[in-house]
Amino acid sequence: MLPNPWDIGTAVYLEHLGFKALATTSAGFAFSRGKPDGDVPRDEMLAYIREIVEATALPVNADFEAGYAHEPENVARNVRLCLETGVAGLSIEDNTRDTNGPLYDKKLAVERICAARAAIDESKTGAVLTGRCEAWLVGDPDPLRTALDRLTAYAEAGADCLYAPGVGDPDEIAQIVKALAPKPVNVLVSGFNNQLTLSQLADLGVRRISVGSGLALAAWGAFLRAAQDIKTNGTFHLLADNAPSAEINQLFRQT
């Protein structure tokens, strides 16, 4: 289980709860900076990743989006920069963020994974490389078929862990796990599939679970509801569910 903090405070609290590893969230961090997901430049994202790594003793996996470059050699360069932050792993996705061609051509996507693999091997850090297929997130017409095809190729190209954020159907999850065995599969749990439990996913063979921007959006949801209630109704009832400041102060005094 890799929950996703979006700042130092949330990373510290998740470690306090007893989680054994963390992952960054590109969307959660972007929202905290007043930017849409995908609009945070590389160096700003690297600074955030470094903050999370330095805030906790836990291993941290970096959501490194598409490597902040198109060409494989530039992906490799940026992976090396990410490794310098001290991460225990990172993911590279195949989302181009171009509506005319939302996924990188498969051959180029594989070359990008190969480049990331080579950069990690050269670093001798032992960092875990996660290959991500964004078929569900970009609205691919046949996301399962696309994900199975690409994730298999990414595994062969050297990805240690495979990830298709957006898949929620248990049967489709099981098919992905079976096709990629013995390599581990990461599943994103968010609003679209939050009925799934950790034990159910484990029974399907899932080896790693993350929540992406889920925790950040939970915080945003509480904030939006309370702020809108104050503005619209002039009432403050929703503040009754606030976290106790004394408890948070005590936690941060100890860190």
SSE topology sketch:
Blueprint: H1 8-17, E1 22-23, H2 26-32, H3 42-55, E2 60-63, H4 72-83, E3 89-93, H5 106-123, E4 128-132, H6 143-156, E5 161-163, H7 170-180, E6 185-188, H8 198-203, E7 208-210, H9 214-233, H10 245-253
Order of helices and strands: HEHHEHEHEHEHEHEHH
User: How far is it from the N-terminal to the C-terminal residue, by CA?
Assistant: 23 Å
- The CATH superfamily appears as Phosphoenolpyruvate-binding domains
Total strands: the figure is: 7
Number of helices: 10
What is the correct CATH architecture?
Answer: Alpha-Beta Barrel
- Which value, in Å, is the CA radius of gyration? 19 Å
The biggest beta sheet reads: 7 strands, parallel
Rough outline? globular
Class by helix and strand content? alpha/beta
CATH topology: TIM Barrel
Strand order of the largest sheet: 1-2-3-4-5-6-7
Describe the structure in your own words.
This protein has 255 residues and is α/β, with parallel strands linked by helices. The chain has one domain (8-213): Alpha-Beta Barrel (TIM Barrel). The protein is built from ten helices and seven strands. It has helices at 8-17, 26-32, 42-55, 72-83, 106-123, 143-156, 170-180, 198-203, 214-233, 245-253, and strands at residues 22-23, 60-63, 89-93, 128-132, 161-163, 185-188, 208-210. The protein has a seven-stranded parallel sheet with strand order 1-2-3-4-5-6-7. Helix 8 (198-203) links the parallel strand 6 (185-188) and strand 7 (208-210). Helix 2 (26-32) runs parallel beside helix 9 and helix 6 (143-156) packs parallel to helix 7.
